[in-house]
Structure formats: structure tokens, C-alpha cells
Amino acid sequence: MILPMALDFALSEMVLALSTSPLAIVERLADTHLFQERNRLESLLAHMNNLLKKLEEGFKRNHEVFWSIMIFVDDRPENIIEILDDLIMVSDERIEFHEKMFKRFRKTIKRARRQSGRLNALADLDERLFAIIGKEIDMRVDVSSELRAMRAEVNPESRGGPTFDKPGDLASYLLS
């Protein structure tokens, strides 16, 4: 009996697969899983980069809007100070939340990669992901600092006070 070529090939593949050690089959499956995981992470990184760019654009727009509003607050600075205080509080809470979440996430990913062994091949993508998250947190800190600068600009109580020519003098004053 002569089998069609495709069927003959399929049978020989089946025999080869059956004669292959289970470890080799598992390794082949692991390689496939690793490839799929790498593709998934690459896609996630691209998506997160896009979100980061949008966040950065939003922060820039807010910066322009807030500084243009600052021109009109001379007559009632206490209102804008109160708004800025609220924004700073919310901003700081979000920064704290993101930092805690990031630390937990980083620890979880590193532990999972350590336990799996083979997935250490994705460590470069993990580091890129961590860098994106770190950049987002840094941007949030910059926004919070900018809000503080705006508040200092509007707040009449922030004018005056001691000045320092040497960093050591400033440090001593702040620690006192």
C-alpha cells in the first residue's frame, strides 16, 4: 500500500514526535511559549509608550493652561492657593500609590522570572517596562514640583524669608 506523500510525511512526524523524549517536547513548547510571551510583552511596551506620550502631552497642556491662569489671580490668590493645595495633595497621593504599586510589581516579576529560569530571556523587556513605569512616576513628581512652584509664585507668604549662599547653610536651616 502506497500512502499519499502528505500523509506519509504526517506519519513520520508523528513517529518522530512519539520517539522524542518528553523533555524535548516540553522544551519545544517552552520555546513557543517564550516567543508568544516576548510578542505579548513587546505589544504591551508599545502600548505603554503610547500612553506615556499622551500623558506627557497632557501634562504639557496643563502646564500651559495653569501658567496662563496664574496671570489673573492677583486679586484673589487664596482661591488659587487652595486649588493648588488640593492638586498637590492628590498628586502626591497618586505618586505614592504608583511607587508602591511599582515596587510590588517589580518584586513580583523578578521573583517569577527567577523561579521560571527559562523566562529570564525576557529580562531585557522587563527592564524596558520598568523604565517606562519609572519615567511615568518621574513625570508625576515633576508635575507635583511644578504645582508647588505655582503655589509659591501666588502665595504672598512664600515671598521673603532667609536666603542661603552655601548649600551647607541651607541644609542646616532645613534640618533645624
Structure description:
With 176 residues, the chain is mainly alpha-helical. It has one domain. It is 82% helix and 0% strand. It is built from five helices and no strands. α2 packs parallel to α4 and α3 runs antiparallel to α4. The protein is elongated.
Major beta sheet summary = none
The average pLDDT value, as a whole number, equals 75
By secondary-structure content and strand pairing, the structural class works out as mainly alpha
Q: Estimate the helix proportion, in percent.
A: over 70%
Compressed to H and E, one letter per element, the order equals: HHHHH
Low-confidence blocks of residues: 1-7, 20-27
**Computed Rg:** 28 Å
Number of domains: 1
Compute the number of strand runs: 0
How much strand content do the residues show?
under 5%
Helix count equals 5
Shape: elongated
- Alpha-carbon distance between the termini? 97 Å
Task: Kindly list the characteristics that best describe this protein.
disordered N terminus; mainly alpha; 82% helix; 176 residues
